[in-house]
Design brief:
The structure holds 2 protein chains of 2 kinds. By secondary structure, chain A is of the alpha/beta class. Chain A contains 20 helices and 21 strands. About 3% of the residues of chain A have low confidence. In chain B, helix 1 runs antiparallel to helix 2. Chain B has one domain: Barwin-like endoglucanases. By secondary structure, chain B is of the alpha/beta class. The chains are: A alpha/beta, B alpha/beta. Chains A and B meet through helix 1, helix 4, helix 6, helix 13 and helix 16 of A and strand 1, helix 1 and helix 5 of B. Iron/sulfur cluster binds next to helix 1 of chain A.
Chain lengths: 479, 133
């Protein structure tokens, strides 16, 4: 059976490049090394998919030819005065490049999904900079790992195992032994509590010590893992410290930590629901580490304060660099959202929310970002590539999106394709087509083609090129 | 009952999304609301029953799921998706991004049914008849 090795997983921002895929008769029969989410994509990608281009006629989506679908799309875009081109984080850098050309040609706004996840992070990074690194550095050297407002166990399942606390680095060992001890201790604790509860017919009070987990780490020169979140996620369960912040109050905790590492004392007992002693302990751990990193997720960018939270987190990192080496990195969701930012920046100078309606690139998130445009009801057509805004945008934005002509290029049917006027099915990049993707730490990786696509389906890049050609033809014809 | 609404991702949702966004599995994950057992007692609802979650921006019916994490009374969790998005705050405060965490919400038990994706789209966005391709 042919085994294809070193396949890059086209699912989340970890872009694991050690996947092995077994192919039989042009079908993927097994996947090795991937997490449940990655494996599910490789094994199920071909179920529930769009096979034929669709076009809306008399209120219904009906099958049509590819040429027809492309002509109709080009017409919609060429005639619109302020179209939006949205998506881009689940396609290849090559397709994104064509998308940018198309946006310029039609004088529209092009935006990628970072607008709804790490847009604020980018704004903060533009304000204060970002001390970053590659994930390899973290795997081999970091002895303090902090996940803030992100839940890698669920959203980036192999992040902890490949790059951080559970990875076996050259200079830093995995903490799995401690992790197992902790799981064991927790289960004993729970059993004890249950026994106590049975005996006394009430819930045994949890001690502070027990709640926090057993601090084996304090005496050991080992990697430490801290999780900060508004709820106890699975990631929090393996952490040495879990800091539970009240919703929307991360900013206060970040600033409290900044004060504590400067040896200032806080005149309160708790900050955002976190006892000050716990923060003091964590501040000591931060100052005492050799190389630390904060991975922050959408929990931080989406709660109140948004870019100011990231600003505070980056400032905390900067302050810590007076004592030790500290880094910070956003946890990017889709496999190529970093690539979308990179390609946008090469081509236009800006990472997302780029408006071409003036004839040159103009960038002002809050004004030129798609959700704002949609909420103001300004756009008059939309092209969505490999994304599902109907499922992910707030209701008000969706209402304006579906009111106007909507073109969708996507391999699967989705809530958005149900509401579209033209649907063009494409191949899966990373499975049926090649391309380039950027991992969350800005390392470019080649996506492989492991099976042949079904007849008649083209990659996003090719579909976009054809639309662009047709748009140019229409415009020349008219001019 | 007044609660704080948080939306986010779960691995189950990630997996079921990969197996098709129109599949019933996806709806089983996305059209749910994780509640603290204490809150479930207060509301007198059991796992699998329906609740109506209302915010300033709208309301939606979802299924109750008992939270398996440590106690978080007063905080409810709905996975990102078409169901959560009809009730989140669309204001971006000049950042381009809406607020999806920590939204004030009201929750109550209901006998109304959870809408499947097509009916949901039809109800909230109407207009185009949502025909499957
Ligand atoms: S962690 Fe992400 S990139 Fe790695 S296998 Fe899982 S889904 Fe794929």
């Amino acid at each position: 059976m042919p085994l294809i090795s070193k396949v890059v997983c086209p699912v989340c921002g970890c872009c694991c490049d050690d996947i092995e895929v077994i192919v039989e008769n042009n079908r993927i029969v097994d996947v090795r090394n991937a997490c449940a989410m990655g494996a599910s994509k490789f094994l199920n990608y071909s179920k529930h998919r769009l096979k034929k281009p669709l076009i809306r006629r008399g209120g219904e989506l009906v099958e049509t030819s590819l040429d027809e679908a492309i002509k109709r799309s080009a017409k919609i875009l060429a005639e619109a005065s302020y179209p939006i081109l949205y998506g881009w984080s689940s396609t290849s850098c090559e397709a994104i490049r064509v998308g940018l050309e198309l946006a310029e040609e039609v004088g529209g706004v092009i935006d990628n999904t970072s607008t709804t996840c790490h847009g604020p992070s980018i704004l903060a990074i533009q304000d204060v900079g970002l001390p970053g690194c590659t994930l390899g550095q973290i795997r081999h050297r970091a002895d303090l790992i902090i996940y803030w407002g992100s839940n890698p166990w669920s959203a980036h399942p192999r992040h902890i195992e490949r790059y951080t606390a559970l990875s076996e680095g050259r200079f830093q060992r995995s903490i799995w032994r401690r992790f197992l001890l902790r799981v064991y201790a927790t289960s004993i604790r729970k059993k004890l509590q249950r026994a106590l509860a049975l005996a006394f017919r009430r819930r045994a009070p949890e001690t502070e010590e027990a709640r926090r987990g057993i601090p084996y780490t304090l005496t050991q020169e080992e990697r430490k893992l801290i999780v900060v979140d508004v709820r106890r996620t699975r990631s929090a369960e393996i952490a040495d410290y879990f800091i539970k912040v009240e919703p929307n109050r991360d900013y206060e905790v970040l600033q409290a930590l900044r004060a504590l590492i400067r040896d200032e004392t806080l005149d309160v007992d708790e900050v955002a629901g976190v006892p000050v002693e716990l923060l003091e302990e964590v501040a000591d751990v931060m100052v005492g580490c050799k190389l630390g990193i904060i991975f922050f997720g959408v929990g931080l960018t989406m709660s109140d304060g948004k870019l100011r939270n990231i600003d505070a987190a980056i400032s905390l990192t900067r302050d810590l660099n007076m004592y030790t080496k500290f880094l910070i990195m956003p946890m990017r969701g889709h496999f190529n959202v970093t690539g979308a930012n990179v390609v946008f920046t090469w081509q236009t100078g800006y990472p997302y929310a780029v408006d071409f309606s003036h004839g040159y690139p103009y960038y002002n998130p809050g004004e030129t970002s798609v959700i704002d445009i949609l909420c103001r009801g300004e756009s008059d057509a939309a092209l969505v590539v490999a994304s599902d805004p109907v499922a992910t945008f707030p209701g008000e934005a969706v209402r304006n999106l579906v009111r106007n002509p909507l073109i969708v290029i996507d391999p699967h049917p989705s809530a958005t394709s149900l509401m579209a006027d033209v649907v063009i099915p494409s191949t899966f990049v990373g499975i049926e087509a090649e391309g380039t993707t950027y991992r969350m730490d800005h390392v470019p990786l080649p996506l492989k083609k492991v099976v042949e696509p079904p007849d008649g389906l083209l990659p996003d890049e090719e579909i976009l090129k054809r639309i662009l050609r047709e748009v140019r033809r229409i415009k020349r014809g008219a001019g | 009952m007044k609660v704080s609404l948080v939306t986010g991702r779960t691995i189950d949702q990630g997996c079921s999304k990969e197996s098709g966004k129109l599949s019933p599995e996806y709806m089983d994950y996305a059209a749910t609301c994780e509640l603290d057992p204490e809150d479930m007692k207060k509301l007198k609802v059991r796992e699998g029953r329906n609740v109506k979650v209302t915010t300033k921006f709208g309301s939606v019916i979802v299924k109750v799921k008992k939270s398996r994490r440590e106690p978080h009374p007063g905080v409810v969790f709905i996975p990102y998706g078409p169901w959560s998005n009809v009730i989140v705050d669309p204001k971006t405060h000049g950042t381009g991004m809406p607020s999806l965490k920590g939204i004030d919400a009201h929750i109550e038990p209901t006998k109304e049914e959870v809408l499947d994706l097509k009916s949901l789209l039809l109800k909230y966005y109407g207009g185009k008849s949502a025909e499957e391709g």
